Amino acid sequence: MSTFSRQDQLPSLPVPPLVETLEKYIDSASALLTPDEKKRIEKEAHDFQHSELGAQLQSALENRSKNHKNWVGKEFPRTRPPTLTQFILVSLEDWWYNVYTEIRDPLAPYVSFGALNTVYNCVNGGQISRAADVLYHWLSVWDKIRHGKWPVTSSRGVTWDMDQFHHLFSSNRTPHMPRDTIDRYFKTKEEGDTPCHVIVCCNGCFWKINILNEEEDTLKTSDELFNMLKFVKDNSSDESSGCVSKLTTSHRDVWTTNRDELLRVSAANMRHLKDVESSVLFMSLVPKNGGNDHQKLMTDALQDESWFVWQDKSVSITIYEDAQVMVQGDHSNIDAIVLLQVGDYAASRVRKELWHPQKTGSDQHFEFPERLIFELNEPLRHAISQAEVDFYKSKQLYRARPVHFFGYGNDLCRTAKLYTDTVVQLALQLAFLKTHGSFGPIYETASTRKYFHGRTETVRGCTQQFVRFAKALTEEKKTEKEDLQKLFDSAINAHNQLMADCMDGRGFDRHLLGLKQTLTIMNKGCGPKRAIPNFLKDDTWKRTGGDGNFLLSTSFIGYMDNEQPGTIGYVAAMRPDGYGCFYRIGKNRISVAVSDWVGSRSNIDAFCGNILWALDALSPFLTPAQKL
Asked: Which listed residue (137, 166, 272, 331) is catalytic?
């Protein structure tokens, strides 16, 4: 079975009934609202459900879904808004990407994800050896995808969409105003020619490395890559102060202007930009040690030095002098789990010791890398200097911490017939309650990749059942153990049902996004302008998580192999006063990457400590009472 052979067999993401979506939203929001607030949004939602506008918007999505997968269609040019009769042709898929590409803040730390891998060890003098191995194994995945030999992902016997693996390599988020574009250059062998080069940045110097032996259509070996990378390092003077990659760290509008200036200055710049943006991936060889301090490495994974990463690329790999490895990616193009899966694959195969090819230097013939030299004028040099200043200011805005819990893991939870993911979700909310004395809206990623081009749906895990359990667990008044167990079971079951609904395309956040975006497009037409429904502009909408206002943004990013966490990745918290929590589950441990923003009411140290407390506090409830 080839990588993309099942794509046409995948079902379309369904459009849920409007009444079901509104009921689920009200039920979810009620956990965080007063009775009077709940009564108000019930009336507002009821009015919308029975309005002409509600029927019209729902009908548009349903009509589109009858004939097209995922309401999929091509987006209209920005200069030509669709008419009222055309608006149903716009795609949920386009809307989802636009949510990201309309963000104008710098990609790091606001959009990108960063990751380290605990499998990598430091090796003195091992930078080029490690770089060659890492590059080879990442490229082997590229080659498998190109030939359709990368295995199709499945979960519990269900085939998942593989489209994001098609997007992983040779993709670039290109800056434009008012919205960026995601440009994808990768093609399979069946589809035609594809870029076959990587860009390596060493000391601020850019090099283009061809990765195929073209006559045989085979990847260059680790030995060949070693010699090419050694040539790059030996021939790269320190030009980091004027490195063009610093420009990619800027506000997206600023980077748009500077990119236009780069293109204007010379035709060579145009060729070089095309080479960078179409490259399979971006790699940096950097003149500093990474070390083994995972807390420091986690922060550096998102922002280390200003020139290390070409922020627009979907895959950027940094190799340190001591052979430590960091990976960063643009979250707008792919979900983190795809990048992490490939990162784990490569890390499990890379040699952990210093090695050299049998033939090096003059004894070995190899294809020389091509140096790319950008032409800069004074405004661009000034822009690079300013970008660096802004980068180091933003680097002080957030924090990241690893949390490792060794009390139990997947083995105990499976014995208790519980999903460990659900237990962690309850623990994170308990930790927030203990830290701040209040409940908060929580976002958990649910994959919708069982559907054609599916990405994610939102599980809003702060349920009324959880609130009742948490209050009983933490209040001074003692609750009987048997009653607490029942409340725990109820909270677990409620969360499991939410997750199942979301993975089955019956969540409500993406549906509400589709309704809102359809309304926006209708209002660009010639007809009368329609007001946004009251429940979507009520102050309770954002207070319960609407428009991405989640105090806890969380995701389960995979199981561990041999109790080694492996790739630990994270993105910044969604709100300045919230936390990001991204966790991996082992047989007897749980590891969480936590992020927050500096200078707000968030308290990362207290919250991390309370995660350990919460996981421990839940251990008495892990009994055989549940059923998967």
From this structure: 331
Residue 308 has pLDDT above 90, yes or no: yes
Please give, one letter per residue, the 3-state secondary structure of 152-188. Answer: CCEECCEECCCHHHHHHCCEEEECCCCCCEEEECCCC
The per-residue pLDDT for range 234-262, each reduced to its tens digit, is 999 999 999 999 999 999 999 999 999 99
Tally of CB atoms within 10 A around 605: 12
What pLDDT does 91 receive? Answer: 54
Peptide bond into 195 cis (omega under 30): no
CA 265 to chain CA centroid, Å, is: 34
Pick from 232, 226, 235: nearest CA to 355 = 226
* Domain regions of the chain by residue span: 107-396
SS3 202: strand
- What is the mean predicted confidence (pLDDT) over 335-357? 94
- Collapse the DSSP code of 85 into the 3-class scheme (helix H, G, I; strand E, B; otherwise coil) and give the result: coil
Residue 536 to residue 557: CA distance in whole angstroms: 31
Higher pLDDT, 84 or 470: 470
- Read off the pLDDT of each residue in 354-359 and give the average, rounded to a whole number: 87
Tokens 């290109």 map to which residue? 174
Output the pLDDT for position 539. 94
Model pLDDT, residue 25? 97
Query: DSSP string of 463-497?
Result: -HHHHHHHHHHHSSS---HHHHHHHHHHHHHHHHH
Cα separations in angstroms, 323 against 94, 198, 200, 343? 39, 19, 16, 15
- The three-state secondary structure class of 516 is helix
Q: What is the CA radius of gyration of the chain?
A: 25
- Region 46-51: mean pLDDT is 97
pTM of the model: 0.93
Which residue has tokens 């199709």? Answer: 152
Is residue 248 a contact partner of residue 310, using CB atoms and an 8 Å limit? yes
Helix (H) or strand (E) holding 582: strand 579-585
Our answer to whether residue 68 is catalytic in this structure is: no
* Residues in CB range of 498: below 8 A, 6 or more apart: 459, 460, 461, 463, 507
Decide if 134 contacts 346 (C-beta within 8 A): yes
Cβ pair 225, 214 in contact under 8 A:
no
**Cβ 484 vs Cβ 469: under 8 Å:** yes
Least confident of 348-357, 429-438, 555-564: 555-564
Sheet hosting strand 590-597, strand order edge to edge: 398-405, 590-597, 579-585, 552-559, 442-447, 456-460
Confidence of residue 628 (pLDDT cuts 50, 70, 90): very low
Return mean pLDDT, the chain: 92
Query: Which pLDDT band, with edges at 50, 70 and 90, does 66 fall under?
Result: confident
Q: Which fold has domain 107-396?
A: Chloramphenicol Acetyltransferase (3.30.559)
Closest to 103 (Cα-Cα) out of 409, 480, 461, 547: 547
